């Protein structure tokens, strides 16, 4: 299959919408990362996403809609869900709600709940409006790889597997949406994102964070969010995350870099001058900037052929929680506190 990568505009968006309506798979930009979309209510179309991504069938997809009204008949919208949608939609917030039988089991990997989101990226919204069906879309990477934040990343992973990529430039947020489970009494963050647990609590009155957000699952433990049990965001190189005061992180990074054969450093911009001629990449100067850059940097560092990535983390709270959740998984939980 030939994969067309086309700049987004009214015509290419219409072409993509036509492909989606015919049961094809199309990649498109959202404000978080690129998505790999198909008609969420078409069994065969959704199966084609799993095939293109090589995604395990037990990892459910997020269903994207153009507006709240499109949820009618798909899931049971609770009062808390309504409040959160009013506050944060369109935006990087995914809600888990009980599904109806209209949503095929393949979309939710057999779960009784469905994940729903209305993205705020103008291209995503225009596409959802044009195709008039809800679109199931996971991130547009091959399973296990870092999520794509540019059309070029999608092309790297999906070339020959899908007919079309809509190119809408760089994704603003850079990490996937916050996933909040609303099927219990208290909203629970299963995957942190740009909208923080504090943001959720400010609207819903209360919010917890699943313990598996910052630690590996125990042997035999059931994942509250199936995506969490799979290897994720993994660069090819081994990665270690270092956290602590800047001076300690700098010194330990230099020590480990010099002792290794082929390492690269990923650190906050303010630290970069301290590394002299060593190969070092910048991760911005705030958790928000790091979220925007992280997946792109993981791919860039892999391209150097390095075998070890020494990465500086953030405190795992507020906006830092989303970054550390991804870094922890990219590093297979090899986190060193200094
Ligand atoms: P992706 O869009 O690739 O980031 O994948 C969507 C993620 O949302 C999955 O990895 C799941 O962990 C989560 N998710 C989607 N639907 C459900 C659901 N019904 N229950 C729990 N988690 C879900
Ligand atoms: Mg993904």
Q: How would you describe what is shown here?
A:
The chain has 338 residues and is α/β, with parallel strands linked by helices. The chain folds into 2 domains: 4-214, DHBP synthase, CATH 3.90.870.10; 238-337, Threonylcarbamoyl-AMP synthase, C-terminal domain (Rossmann fold), CATH 3.40.50.11030. It has 10 helices and 16 strands. An 11-stranded mixed beta sheet has the order 1-8-2-3-7-4-6-5-9-10-11, sandwiched between helices. The radius of gyration is 20 Å and the shape is globular. It starts with a strand and ends with a strand. The mean pLDDT is 96. Residues 59-60, 62, 96, 108, 111, 113-115, 138-139, 176, 179, 190, 225-227 line the site of adenosine monophosphate. Adenosine monophosphate (AMP) binds at residues 59-60, 62, 96, 108, 111, 113-115, 138-139, 176, 179, 190, 225-227.
Write the layout of secondary structure elements.
Elements: E1 4-7, H1 10-21, E2 26-28, E3 35-39, H2 43-53, E4 62-64, H3 79-88, E5 93-98, H4 105-108, E6 113-117, H5 122-131, E7 135-136, H6 151-158, E8 164-167, E9 178-181, E10 188-191, H7 197-204, E11 208-209, E12 238-243, H8 246-259, E13 263-267, E14 280-282, H9 287-303, E15 308-312, H10 320-330, E16 335-337
Parallel strand pairs: 1-8, 2-8, 4-6, 5-9, 10-11, 12-15, 12-16, 13-14, 13-15
Antiparallel strand pairs: 2-3, 3-7, 4-7, 5-6, 9-10
Helix pairs in contact: 1-5, 9-10
The structure holds adenosine monophosphate and magnesium ion.
Adenosine monophosphate binds at residues 59-60, 62, 96, 108, 111, 113-115, 138-139, 176, 179, 190, 225-227.
């Amino acid at each position: 299959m030939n994969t067309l990568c086309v700049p987004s505009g009214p015509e290419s968006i219409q072409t993509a919408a036509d492909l989606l309506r015919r049961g094809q798979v199309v990649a498109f930009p959202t404000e978080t990362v690129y998505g790999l979309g198909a008609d969420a209510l078409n069994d065969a179309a959704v199966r084609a996403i799993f095939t293109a991504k090589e995604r395990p069938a037990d990892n459910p997809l997020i269903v994207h809609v153009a507006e709240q009204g499109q949820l009618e008949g798909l899931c049971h919208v609770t009062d808390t869900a309504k409040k959160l949608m009013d506050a944060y939609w369109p935006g990087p917030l995914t809600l888990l709600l009980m599904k109806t039988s209209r949503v095929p089991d393949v979309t939710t990997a057999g779960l009784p709940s469905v994940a729903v989101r209305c993205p705020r990226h103008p291209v995503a919204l225009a596409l959802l409006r044009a195709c008039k069906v809800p679109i199931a879309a996971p991130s547009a990477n091959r399973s296990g790889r870092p999520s794509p934040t540019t059309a070029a990343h999608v092309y790297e992973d999906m070339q020959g597997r899908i007919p079309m990529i809509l190119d809408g430039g760089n994704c603003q947020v850079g990490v996937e949406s916050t996933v909040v489970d609303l099927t219990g009494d208290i909203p629970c963050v299963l995957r942190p994102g740009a909208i923080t647990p504090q943001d959720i609590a400010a609207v819903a009155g209360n919010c917890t964070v699943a313990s598996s957000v910052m630690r590996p699952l125990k042997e035999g433990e059931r994942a509250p969010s199936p995506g969490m049990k799979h290897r994720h965001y993994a660069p090819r190189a081994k990665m270690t995350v270092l956290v602590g005061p800047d001076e300690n992180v700098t010194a330990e990074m230099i020590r480990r870099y010099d002792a290794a054969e082929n390492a690269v450093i990923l650190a906050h911009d303010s630290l970069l001058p301290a590394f002299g001629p060593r190969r070092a990449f910048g991760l911005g100067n705030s958790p928000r900037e790091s979220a925007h850059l992280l997946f792109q940097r993981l791919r860039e560092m892999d391209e150097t052929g390095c075998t070890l990535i020494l990465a500086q983390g953030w405190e795992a709270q507020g906006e830092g929680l989303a970054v550390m959740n991804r870094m922890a998984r990219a590093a297979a939980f090899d986190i060193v506190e200094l």
